[in-house]
Amino acid sequence: MNFVTLLNYPIYLLIFISIYGCLTIALNVQWGYAGLFNAGVAGFFAVGAYTSAILTSPAAVGRIGGFSLPVPVGMLGAMLACVVAAWPVGKVCLRFRSDYLAIVSIGVAEAIRLVVRSEEWLTNGSRGIIDIPRPFGDLPYAQSQVAFLGLSCLILLVVYFLVERQLRSPWGRMMRAIRDNETAAQAMGKDVPRRRLEAFILGSALMGLAGALYVHLTRVITPDAIDPMIVTFLVWIMVILGGSGNNRGVLVGALIIWVIWSASELVTDQLPADIALKAKYARMFLVGLLLQVILRLRPEGLLPERVGTAGGSGDLGRTSPEAIAPSEGSDDV
Amino acid sequence: MDISSFINFFLIPGIILGSIYALGAIGVTLVYAIMRHGHFAHGDLATFGAFMVLLFSASSGLSPYAALPIAAVAAGLMAIAIDWLFYTHLRTLPKIITTISSLGVALMLRAVVQIFWGVNTLSYETGIARPENWFGLRIKPHEVVTVVMVIGLVVALEIFLRHSKWGKAMRAMSDNPDLASLCGIDNRKVIALTWMLVGALCAASGFFLGLNTQVKSLMGWNILLPTFAAAILGGVGRIEGAILGGLIVGICEEMSVLVIRSEYKVLSGFVILLLALLIRPTGLFRGKVL
């Protein structure tokens, strides 16, 4: 056994952490900075995954696709498809606030899941899409995993720096202003609905990118692979644990939660089959409980949002107790 | 399509489904009225209630109908425990945090059901209930029971809220919690009472859903969207609105197969929710706007 195969599992873990890191930054743009409660993360993740799968997989009977396009084209297509999907959703839904947006976004994710399940001509229904190419697929498995890790980390870094830059620019300051006091921002002439839509679309496109990365890692996508509540919920708990409104924080959240989630899977896999099945649900229970514990002990997250650094000016080290609940300033629907 | 097949295949199933949604929506609306947050664990609390009925009827040999009151109390106590453990300390934070917390609670409740009962589909009664023919109307016995019991529950709840001391306290707190507290109403007791009612209503809606379809771990999550649609369509905080909203959503869902593929039937509640929010966000009965 050589060094690289020994590292297989940690590498696999790190790839997933970078994919979820991309998702948490995406949700952070929507929730942490714009105060938009998107409970349909899995929906846009699925749109990205399926788009890239359709664009890059070889021809198959009974469904469209089989374009065998290069992987980068698939990833760009995934982001584009999410932009196209997010635009009408945002146009209609972003006028709702807090609870209403949450329930509506759950509905959007549910609708996407139903389309994925029932439109056989597009997604091959429950049989799913197979033979999705991997980037660096010509290399031996272990090397290709390492290369994939490099690629996913590079993408995450680019996403992180672009989003950070965007949030430190006047655009980011304005987003926080809108989030914290919509009326004041409006009075100062900010186009609130338009800015919200921008944040929603940016976040959704990044979710699609994460979906594309996922699908090129696993090579197969079926509707069951994307359990809407598990993907959505894990991303939410990562953002809340890490500290919404802080990109470094949500990345720490992604790291911690994914390590806990996978490590607990390693443990439960050792159990006898009949108990292992129950243990899978026990893991879900513990994740739900973990959220309650975080909300109780540290609702602002491990690395809370820093107030006063947005424009790059002095860091006063102040933390906002309201950081986890950006959208409360405006109660209208 | 003639009138009798319309009634048999769309109206009657729609009313049954609508009554189940109505029971859930009353609970959602009560939480909104008193606690002022969305309760996304509502569907999974209904699942929990449905499985409690299964537990009590299997362990004691009682009929599911007789086990329902016990299960309702169990679900009510569960709701109080959840509130006490997870929601109480979030009350000073913005309400959306409690909503997020309730999503986690939903996951936990579902996991409990899946750990103890697994994910297989179960049912309360074995064998197929044959519909009886009442002058051309095909109605199954448990459908009659469902509607009669839902009407009974709603009337009892209405009398309780209008005429009892605690019902009046609940309405006062819904209108203005600070004023109610100044008048000597113990907010904590009203909150506990509300959760008891909400849990019991959840158990009833879960039981009737299980009686008319199947008992499975995802049953409650699947009715969450139509339940919220019913509550919001009727007007948040309005009990009569929740009932009307439930019936509208139920009947529309059954009739939606006339225009869309049956796979997408479950989305009709979502479409109604969107339309309600866009056209009339206060709902049909001018409820609260969050």
Q: Which helices and strands occur, and which strands form pairs?
A:
The complex is a heterodimer of chains A (333) and B (290).
Chain A (H helix, E strand, L loop, with lengths): L2 H4 L1 H26 L7 H16 L14 H23 L4 H21 L1 H4 L17 H28 L1 H11 L1 H6 L4 H27 L9 H15 L4 H23 L3 H25 L8 E2 L10 E2 L14
Helix pairs in contact in A: 2-7, 2-10, 2-11, 2-12, 3-4, 3-5, 3-10, 4-10, 11-12, 11-13, 12-13
Chain B lengths: L2 H32 L7 H19 L3 H24 L7 H23 L14 E3 L2 E3 L1 H23 L1 H11 L1 H6 L4 H26 L6 H4 L1 H11 L4 H17 L12 H12 L11
Antiparallel strand pairs in B: 1-2
Membrane topology (chain B): Multi-pass membrane protein
InterPro entries (chain B): ABC_transp_permease, BCAA_transport_permease
Protein name (chain B): Branched-subunit amino acid ABC-type transport system permease component
Labels describing this entry:
heterodimer; A: 333 residues; mainly alpha; two-stranded antiparallel ribbon; 69% helix; 1% strand; globular; disordered C terminus; B: 290 residues; 12 helices; 2 strands; 72% helix; 2% strand; cell membrane (chain B); transmembrane (chain B)
